[in-house]
Amino acid sequence: MAIAINKLTNANIYINNVDLIGRAEEVTLPDVTYKMVEHNGLGMLGAVEFFSGIEKMEASIKWGAIYQEVAELADPFKVHKFDLCGNLQSWDSSGLLQETKYKVHMEAAFKNFPTGMFKARENVDMSTKMNVFSIKVEIGAVSVFEFNATTNKLTVNGKDLTAKYNANLGK
Fold first, then answer.
1. How far, CA to CA in Å, does 129 sit from each of 51, 80, 120, 135, 166?
2. For the segment 64-104, what is each residue's pLDDT rounded down to a tens digit?
3. For a FRET experiment, which of 86, 157, 161, 169 has its CA 20 to 30 Å from that of 67?
4. By the 8 A CB rule, do 51 and 35 touch?
């Protein structure tokens, strides 16, 4: 059986359902980092770490220039809906096998308002950073990862990993 290789090489960004195709040069999505607590008890030969939460998340977008519709979103008190959509291709030795939608939903607030970094005869560097409250990753119609910091929801491959935790907290 041939090995299938996935390639994801391009994407488009939407903010509050506004299509921003061609305006963003680069998007850096957050790394979801698990916070771990070390435990080293009497009689143990080694230390171990246990899950204790999720670190804060940050994303960034490098824009090709300043855009009015992006500047209007700079209010740090408002959370916006971000969607990144890509085309995930699967290849093997016979060629292209399939194309699947790759989608990342985020709810985030802007942390800065860029005014530009200028260099002679080069495009101005305009980058925004966002504080991310929630993220959901879908491949095709399948939700493979979801985390929402304000609702304590953590789902991996459709399994709610925080259901018991939230129930114990009376939620």
1. 27, 13, 25, 15, 30
2. 888 888 888 889 999 999 999 999 999 999 999 999 999 99
3. 86
4. yes
